[in-house]
Amino acid sequence: MALLHQFKIARGQVTYKSRFLSSDSYQANKENNRITVSEFGTITLPDPCKNIFQRFLSRFELPKPTDNANVSFVTYKGDYYVSTETTIIHKLDPEKLETTQKVDWSKFIAVNGATAHPHTEPDGTTYNMGNSYTSKGAYYNIIRVPPTKRTEEETLEGTTVLCTIPSSDKTKPSYYHSFAMTENYVVFVEQPIKMDLFKIVTGKLRRKSISDGFLWDPKRNTIFHVIHKKTGEVSSVKYLAKPLSTFHQINAYEEDGFLVLDMCASDDGLAIANYNIQNLQQVRRSSRRGRRTVEGGNTPNEAKRDPFVSVFPRRFVLPLHVDQDTAYDQNLNARHSSTATAIRIARNKVCCTHEDLHGEDLHHYGGLEFPQINYAKYNTRPYRYFYGCGFRHLVGDSLIKMDVHSKSMKVWEQPGFYPSEPIFVPSPGAAEEDDGVILSVVITPNKDRSTFLLVLDARTFEELGRARVPVNIPYGFHGTFTAAT
User: Averaged over 268-282, what is the pLDDT?
Assistant: First the structure.
């Protein structure tokens, strides 16, 4: 269940509060003292109060979307919301951590969900993505939310669908957790992690969770779709890459007629199964034996592999101007600063390979995820630094600052400490990109009630201080910072 946390820094002191999100899912589970709403990896148990015939018929009911918004804090029109990837988000009072309104995307536009990672323009205009499922197949939608409210009670009024992109496989659309944005374009990465809609819809009948309908199809290429933000026009050029999986993009920008796209990516889609109970149990047993690998058979849940060293930062360079005069079978990337390639192989197809944005030393820290940048000043612009978590474990066990120019890195780590996603906070009046601090919540599972909020100097990556919290806090996903007005 979504548990919201707040660290408040004021007058030289840090206070902490937490509160469970008062969602319908949480209330139903609490009242019944059992799982009553299916989640991504958990299937609803039959109601023991029903008779056998009623329980049998309940298996034919379509699964209800959860409103357990446990992924991220987001903002629309200046208001805070908490979000997962269904149609339901919750408007929130960030001071009290109280839910003020449940909001359904489908009441405003025809989508069956939206990501928990929208992008926001300097003027407040927000872009997001959501799927729609029709009798003609599955579609991806680029969503645009206006920057301001006309009335205080407004939520998503005025939201429009900028464009609709048909899935390359009508019954098995790609899963996506986020997308990229430049000054003029939105970039959607259609990856070979597929959602089998038939399996998902029949999951309750088959007693399988939503995650059972996810599959990795390495026979399919990755496709980059480029959409113009002002017109909604989808580029006729399809930029292809080898099969990869990605959850979080780092940054994207336009330069010299090219679109530079940086992301954290892996060469397989097996990470989607890392957090299955059987894998966590295997990791725990392996850890006790001093081993890091998960051993087993040949299924995605049991494959013999090392799930800790799979995700690394990569750069793709997409040529924006491809026409009848563009050459075939040669590297179109004229940017000498990048070794990424882009080769036109057909009239409207460009094959791309990536450049690694790291050195060999990152392998020692298990790769990198949860990337963050100086978003306010450098999102959609050329940048130099990003921050993330090193993953030698199934959760982050180090904090890393990467320099994309030199591919060098700075690291903060301590044995037995597991930091959350690093949040960059610029210094007041900052002139340099990395002038600020990094905030991260560090849990210490081997020590009781010793969680703390860590503060690092973003430039030197040296510790400036920590605020200890005398409670146990579970590991979380994403957070945000807001300055008091």
Answer: 72
